[in-house]
Amino acid sequence: MKGNICYSKSSNEICIVENGYLVCEDKKCAGVYTELPEQYEFFPLFDYSEQLVVPGLVDLHVHAPQYPFRGMAMNLELIDWLNAYTFVEEAKYKDLEYAEKAYEIFVDDLKKSATTRAVVFGTIHKDATLLLMDKMEKVGIKGFVGKVNMDRNSPDYLCEENAEKAAIITEEWINACEKYENVKPILTPRFTPSCTDELFEKLSVLQKKYNLPVQSHLSENLGEIEWVKELCPGTKNYGDSYDRYDMFGNDCPTIMAHCVYSGEEEVETMRKQGVFVAHCPESNTNLSSGVAPVKDYLKKGLKVGLGSDIAAGSSLSIFKAMAMAVQCSKLRWRLFDQSVEPLTVDEVFYLATKGGGEFFGKVGSFEEGYEFDAVVIEDATIRHPQELNVKERLERVIYLAEDKNIVAKFVNGKKIL
Ligand code: GUN
Ligand code: FE
Known about the structure:
Layout: E1 2-10, E2 13-25, E3 28-33, E4 47-55, E5 57-63, H1 78-91, H2 96-112, E6 115-121, H3 126-139, E7 142-146, E8 148-149, H4 163-176, E9 183-185, E10 188-189, H5 197-210, E11 214-218, H6 222-231, H7 240-243, E12 254-258, H8 264-273, E13 276-279, H9 281-286, H10 294-300, E14 303-306, H11 318-335, H12 345-357, E15 374-377, H13 390-400, E16 406-411, E17 414-415
Parallel strand pairs: 1-4, 5-6, 6-7, 7-9, 8-10, 11-12, 12-13, 13-14
Antiparallel strand pairs: 1-2, 2-3, 4-15, 15-16, 16-17
Bound molecules: guanine and fe (iii) ion (FE).
Guanine binds at residues 63, 78, 82, 86, 190-191, 217, 220, 283, 309, 312.
């Protein structure tokens, strides 16, 4: 592939090769070159000389069933928002006809975006979640998808009957996922307030039996954190409510969304155990949750990526998440805490690519051996009168790109758009 190639090796700096060659061999990156090595001369060439080529973006946290009410219902904080809007929408996915319509729109929009990998929440409904997985599998997006578990503090119309039944249905769903190539199951206890100890115990057994990753929410909102303290006496912190069931890193690959208010001890456990933070700046703004100290997490060596968190976040665009991560970190720094510096464009580009990609293995960079996920961006239509270098063009794209600027997309060596 010929083009203006931009990728991260580390969070400090974006590597840029103007008018370079990005080689894909056996679905993997075989290097970025200024001149094409002889041995590749007979490879088919995709010529994107005028465009930017970046690694596919990674959305570490998105609720597919909430896509219908994106951009609406932003007047409440987390728990009230869940009860007033979110659970009402998610309950509709019991009806497969509704799920079919809604997930078709979600997956089609995801396909047109710059996202190549996504870690997705479904609903408690097994069949609707499999329908979502069918659709993602078909368009070639790679990802993890979770049938949600919730058996307490949930409305009757969106609550599993009891822990035992929940575990049985969850295991049926896990077994039904064997047929997929691109999408894999991820255990998804919604968050501690919505899961009984008995359910956590049973999910922990399934985690070990099937060696599954886990996703959930952590330390998002101050009221939520107080509630978890009441619900889980004896735990050291919110994270401990997952850790006590071995669903907090170590042998259990784990993504925790938000981590806005994680204390020192929680953060240290996450670092030691390799728990991924899904930073969701738009969601944290819309639900007045706060701003996570991401720069501090990076300095401490935590694994961090970005999430759209539809529908608390309104936009599926991970470019938008990058811009908002920078913007929110600046306000946090200016208004609240000068000890944590703002994020840079180089850092958020890293978070959206290699940072989140690490959850999938060697994903999110063009370094040798990385899975070949690439997105081609046509930015000439974002008009400008002056000359711009590639770095300036990339920065503009982060702030200004829309789906129409995404002109080609490759996942694991295969062109899907
Ligand atoms: N915590 C538990 N469920 C949710 C959800 O659907 N969205 C967000 N942002 N936080 C949650
Ligand atoms: Fe969420």
